[in-house]
């Protein structure tokens, strides 16, 4: 199966979910044009309160459709855009990518910076959902399943159906951590 985009989402407000749109425009060094989280510095409201001048390593949020399928088997109804991602993917295990992986989608390039750290608002969306995307495994490690964050290294238009080309960074590879 080829890696591809199955949905694109954008919201001008700091809402939890993002509506599906026909296309999004990625702007180099900024993020998704017209999205509340785009900017050179942090835009997430809790992070702005801590230090508004911190570089924005969370310009684009990507989630894998396979997570929604797993959640459906557990009785949850989650569709692309519901958890606030900008790009819903299929056919690529975004959580297993190392830091610095480049995702080419059409003319755009996103550099993966880290994991999304899910927050309590997920339980406001659907009670009990947080424990499905943030938990401790049998080895005592914290597991985060709610997607990855990235920065826009080259701008371009992204649409549902676009193929994703994955380019790993030079070794050594470093696992993703929350950003």
From TrEMBL:
Signal peptide: none annotated. PANTHER family: METAL-SULFUR CLUSTER BIOSYNTHESIS PROTEINS YUAD-RELATED, MOSC DOMAIN-CONTAINING PROTEIN. Residues 18-167 form the MOSC domain. GO terms for molecular function: catalytic activity; molybdenum ion binding; pyridoxal phosphate binding. InterPro entries: MoCF_Sase_C, MOSC_domain, Pyrv_Knase-like_insert_dom_sf. This is MOSC domain-containing protein YiiM. It comes from Paramicrobacterium agarici.
